[in-house]
Design brief:
The complex is a heterodimer of chains A (about 110) and B (about 120). With about 110 residues, chain A is mainly β. Helix content of chain A is about 0%, strand content about 50%. In chain A, the strands form two sheets. In chain A, strands 2, 4, 5, 6, 9, 10 and 11 form a seven-stranded mixed beta sheet that branches. The chains are: A mainly beta (about 110), B mainly beta (about 120). The interface of A and B includes residues 33, 35, 39 and 90 of A.
Amino acid sequence: EIVLTQSPGTLSLSPGERATLSCRASQSVSSSYLAWYQQKAGQAPRLLIYGASSRATGIPDRFSGSGSGTDFTLTISRLEPEDFAVYYCQQYGSSPPYTFGQGTKLEIK
Amino acid sequence: QVQLVQSGAEVKKPGASVKVSCKASGYTFTGYYIHWVRQAPGQGLEWMGRVNPNSGGTNYAQKFQGRVTMTRDTSISTAYMELNRLRSDDTVVYYCARSGDFGEFYYWGQGTLVTVSS
């Protein structure tokens, strides 16, 4: 089973700043089957990024994903007030089990 | 548009079973896997397993093997997740999610809270 470790656990930033979230896998994630989700309190997760770098439909271009192998990054170029939430990475490689990272909470400084 | 609508909240006693439904609309039901993910209060996301709506084939996380059954009814475009021998730590929100063209979890249901309490 691939273990995903996200860092930092909590990130405190101000609107307008740049956010960089990290996700490290215990082994290589095949074909960059790595996704990022945003979850706000009381809501279901929302897909932001899939295939490590492809934005889902309707996701603003301030969200970008990068990385390959075992190291992946989600970058939010300029934080908007609605971006403060919890973010999860997930690997969904060729066969299950599919695992999530433990999450990064992005909070307003 | 794609929608996944889950059944309502449940309260169960320890040792009982719960069956959560996920009704799909807006796409061809048999074309995409349905996954089940759960989340304890204030905790992260945990993948439980998936069902292939076309074949009925399933894959379960090892943690839930022997205790979970995922099925589907193609006539009403609905997937089900049944969890047996409920414990207090099964008090979580259960989500269904539909995979996208590349396997990512593109669409999500609204979640179903299951409370296990004596």
